[in-house]
Design brief:
By secondary structure, the chain is an alpha/beta fold. The longest helix is centred in the middle third of the chain and has 17 residues. The model has no long low-confidence stretch (mean pLDDT 95). It starts with 5 loop residues before the first strand and ends in a 21-residue tail after the last helix. Helix 7 links the parallel strand 5 and strand 6. It has 2 domains: 172 residues, Aldolase class I (TIM Barrel); 118 residues, TIM Barrel (Alpha-Beta Barrel). Keywords: 4Fe-4S, Iron, Iron-sulfur, Metal-binding, S-adenosyl-L-methionine. One of its GO terms (molecular function) is iron-sulfur cluster binding. Its cofactor is [4Fe-4S] cluster.
Length: 331
Amino acid sequence: MFVINVFQVGVSTTCNGRCVYCPLTIYRDKWVGRFMEFSLFQRVVEEGVGAGVKYVHLQGWGEPLLHPQFLEMLMLARRHFSVGFTTNGVLLAGSLAKGIVKIGVDILAVTFAGTRAETHNRYRPGNDFNTILQNLRRLAPLLKASGTRIVAIYMMLGDTYRELPFFVKLAAELGVDEVRLSNLSYLPHPSLWLLKVFSKIFEPEPPHVLATIREAKEVAEKSGVKLSHRRFSPWEHLECPEAPTSTLYIDADGEVYPCVYLSLPDYAQRCFEEKCKKNPRLSFGNIREGIRAILKRRREFVGIFEARKKSDFIPPDPPEPCKKCYRLYWI
């Protein structure tokens, strides 16, 4: 059976941003914001050590830097694993930034949706573009001196993709090592369909998007920045980039899921090929029960992916909760 190498831990389900495409914004009238208790995080670390986990990434449906004990969590995790986190970048300043530099971090990922404040702030209200740039300019040299890999997550939307070549140049100036393109893999509302840049199933990848990416790659090569991306036309793969056979997602309450997308509340819907429906969450139990109980409950789920990978011809269907998820189609 597959080994668990990665714990993704959602230490916060509250955020200081209001991104237009995020379920926290779409379902703000129902969403419950909370922080993981430090004692629970200690248990997560203990179970991770017992399971042989190598890497822990602090990211979920919320901003991890809002957690009042984020630095303590980072310090504890760093004693046992390689550690990274994803942030909107607004709080990467002051004593928090100094603490991160002192403790150290292996991967720092910051999310963007444009190369200009006008574009970025339109899609990510509350995440001021100029503040993020100022924070990164101050912090990046200090982190890179200690070996931190800095990744810029760039959201490809209806008009932001056109700014990509300019963003790659900006990222190089900021000291970013990699620009990773992100799609609207999860659409919680049909209105967001108009923002996506990828095509429908069986349609070719949009030529205008590919042309922009080619231009951006030329800039990346000249700037020494890695540019990575998935597909822009859905094509089913044997396993999605969330790597559920080797990764577990643990939310702020300690519930364990195959991935962050299957941890959403039952009232949340998933839109796929212009049709939307509610998608029940899939929990393997709570980490407080111990990693052995979790691994036992996930055997059937993981076994399906194992059979798909071993198939020589037509693979078995994916697990029911994974059907009609764009991540499985490498978006």
